[in-house]
Amino acid sequence: MKRPACAFLTVLLTLATASAQSSEFRTFTNASGKAIRARLLSATASHAVIALENGQQFTLALTALSAADQAYVKQAAAAPATIAAATKPATPYKFTPGPNDKLEPEAVNEVVGQGLFAATALWESSAEEVAQKLGLKPESKTKAASSFRSYTKDDYNLFGAHPYSVAMYAENDKVTNLSLVFANKGDLFSSKGGGELHFDKDTPPAQAAMIVKQAMDKDLAAITETLTKKLGEPKKERFGEGKVGRMNMQRWDWRGHSILLAEAEGEYVGVQIVTSQFADAGGKMARTSDAIIRGQALANLEKRPNGDIVIGDIPMVDQGPKGYCVPATAERAMRYLGVPADMYILANAGETGFGGGTSVNMLLQGVARHIRNKGRSFDTWEGEMKMRDIARQIDKGVPIIWALYSTDGFNDTANKRTKERVGMTNAAEWKTKITGEAAANPLRKDKETGHVVLIIGYNKETNEIAFSDSWGERYKERWITLDEAQQVSQNSFYVVGF
User: Which domains does the chain have, with CATH numbers?
Assistant: First the structure.
């Protein structure tokens, strides 16, 4: 696409400004000429945050946009108050009034069991303040999105039952949805520790399936009764997309909030709290173009003075004390590239065992169609680790899902190296040091420690790779030499790309 001449650019800017003042949405065009309807939320001299008509938000580098749009965003950055006023929707959360709307927040909170709701809708509330109300810990924070999650104690209750996991998602510090998981076959038979300790699994009881069914039936009945007593009989609806995520739901509405109760047979009982608009759409979201995702991915690439090339802004998902490394890692890769995902739903697709334990191929092949339907690609290969293959993906801003054996020796080495290389400036000296250590202490495979991580970076000068575990922020970025990585590799690699 040719860049417009100065006179034409002036006309476009005039029309763009008028459009911003008369409508909350406008057409943005990338440098290749592909167009998308979106609303500008905020802007800096180098980035723009936009919202699609379906509510999805993205942070884009200005270089991903056309010359006219770059000029428009720069103008917005110079006068943020004016643009914010012009682009603010008059009624951001439209919903059809219902019989439950007359209930005050205090009455609905009695049903919830926590002080969740207030006069202000969740979707207009500070995510950090809501997280504090629910006792949720920060899980992840990127440029525009954040998440909070807690694996709760036994005395924590919501909707008349005990949730094992309570997660809340937000964009630009505004709540977008909550996901609560009650009785499920992962947490019911999880290990007693998180992080590296999740490999110390208890042996599941012989009657595990019966125990899971009994626990799920109990929670489903308790939640249904609690909600129905105050909010009336639920609507029965289908919600979600594709074979992976679509399921039957019971739905209750209150002032623009939809409470959705689902049972995935033999897997889990879950509650989602979403906007009524999203529920009315059946949980379907518009496909995001490759142009937007590609620009966003490149903007997240960090090139450090010491030669490190690392992808930043990848959301963290803490799998908790169970063997959900595959679905949790897949969720991270999918969400990073604009594909909505939830590790519990993905675990269902992968036929996880009690307490976790998932076939990498089974799960990822199970969700591949869903990934492709959302406009992303899904590729896999096998073989020895090669720096050129890693660099090819990382240089596009795309992380790699890597299957390995996460042994004690591997983790001890990665933890030590990551700590010691902080402040590393002399790549040659560092390479000599770690090459000698690697030769003196080779790593060995242990097939009882199968695991997956995201490869998120590399350093060609030191022959190292950076990887990220789904064990929380402490494990967000660790380093190991390529040769050591090969020693524990399962030689299987997967990429959610574009």
Answer: 6-87 (2.30.30.700), 99-280 (no CATH), 290-497 (3.90.70.10)
